[in-house]
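Case 385 in the screening queue. Each case pairs one protein sequence with one candidate compound; here the compound is flavin-adenine dinucleotide. For every case the pipeline is the same: read the inputs, emit a complex structure as C-alpha cells, and attach any notable structural observations.

Predict complex for case 385.
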Amino acid sequence: MARSFDAVVVGAGLIGLFAAWNLARRGKTVLVAERGTIACGTTGASFAWLNATSKTEPDYHRLNAEGLARHLELARLWGERTMGMGGAGVLTWGEPEATITLDDLAHQALALKDLHYPCLWLDRDELPAFEPRVAFGGMAEGLFAPRDRWLDAPILARHLAREIAAAGGEVREDAPVTAIARNASGAIEGVTVAGQTLACSQVLLAAGPGTPEAIAMAGEEAAALVPVRRVPGLLVTLPADGARTIVNHILYAPDRGNFHIRPMADGSLLLGDDAVDAMIGDGNDPALLPAAVRALLEVAAGHLPDLLVADLLPHARAAVGVRPVPGDGRTIAGALPGIDGLFVAATHSGITLAPLLGELLAGEMIDGSRAPLLANFRPERFASG
Ligand SMILES: Cc1cc2nc3c(=O)[nH]c(=O)nc-3n(C[C@H](O)[C@H](O)[C@H](O)COP(=O)(O)OP(=O)(O)OC[C@H]3O[C@@H](n4cnc5c(N)ncnc54)[C@H](O)[C@@H]3O)c2cc1C
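Case 385 output:
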C-alpha cells in the first residue's frame, strides 16, 4: 500500500524547510522531497542579506521586515552561530555623481522613517570611522540600517532538517518529484517521489527557480498562475586565507551594479554586483566566469583599495545562483485556486522571507485560513479576466 502523508513539500530550500518544520511541529505528517541535496538550489548560492532596507513599497517592506523579525526571534532561541547568522547592519552610501545620489538616499531614509524601520544618517566625517577601509568619495554620505543581518543559509537549512526530524517529519534527498496526482474533482491525492507513489492530500511547491516545471506537473491552469523567471547571479567567495575580513558590515555601494560585499561565518568575504551578472549570460557557460570574476574583483578594489586583484584572483571561488523572480517581481505565496490541496511559494528575497512564509503557509495548509499579510501576494493576481 502507498505510504501516506498529510503533506509533501517539494524542495529542501529554506522556504520548503521552514514550511515543513512548521507543519511537523504542529502535528502533521510531512515529507520534504528534494531532488538533489539540502540547500543545493538557490538557497546554497545566495548573497543572503536579511533585509527590509532596500524595499520601500509598504506591503512588501512589511513582509520583509516581518521575515527579518522572525529570523531574529529564532536567533534568540537557537543562537546566531547555529543559524549561520551574523553581521550587525547594512551600510549604503550615496555620492553626487553615483547611481545612488544623495537625494535618492535621503528619499530612502525618509521612506524607512515613515515605515518605522530603524536607520541612521552618517555624514562624510562619520563614514570613514565606520568602515575605515572603504574609499568613500569626498562628498559621500551614508545610511546605516542596524537591524539587517546576513545568513550563511545552508547552515540554517541543515539545522532545520534536524529540527524537522526531531518533530517527526522527514527530509529525503535524491528524491525528485516527477508527478502530482489529482482525483476526479481535481483535488491533490498523491505524488510520485523517486519512482514511488505516495498518498497525500496537500502539496507545497517550494521549488525555487524550478517552479515552472514543478507546477506544470499539476496542470496548465496552475502553471499560468505562477509565472517565474530565472535570473542568474555571480557570487565570489574570497576564502579567509586569501583575504582578511576587511569590512565590518554588509556594504551596498552606490555604483551602477550596486556592488555588495559582506563577511561570512568562517571569516571569508562574499561579493556580488548586478552589472557584472550581465556578463554570465544564462549562467550555464563556465567559460564566461573568469572574466566576470576578474571584473567583480576590479569593482571591489575600486571601493576597497586593500583588495589587490592579482593577489586575490587565485583564491577567488565563483558560484552561480539562479534567482526565482515572479512575473511582477513580487512574492507569490498561497493556495492555487481551483486545485484543492495545492500550495506554492516562489519569490526573490526568499532567504529573508522564508521563516515568515513557512509559518504562514503551514497555517493556511492546516486550518484553511488566509493570512492578511499575504493578501497582495497571492497567485490569483495573475488570473486573466
Ligand atoms: C545571486 C543571488 C543573490 C541573492 N541575494 C539575496 C539576498 O541578499 N537576500 C535574500 O533574501 N534573497 C536573496 N536571493 C534570493 C534567495 O536566495 C531565493 O529567493 C531563495 O533562496 C529561494 O529559496 P527557495 O527555497 O524558494 O528555493 P531553492 O533554494 O532553489 O530550493 C528549491 C529546491 O527545490 C528543489 N526542486 C526543484 N524541483 C524539484 C522536484 N521536481 N523534485 C524535488 N525537488 C525539486 C531544488 O533542487 C531546490 O533544492 C538571492 C539569490 C541569488 C541567486
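Case 385 observations:
- The first strand starts at residue 4 and ends at 10.
- The mean pLDDT is 94.
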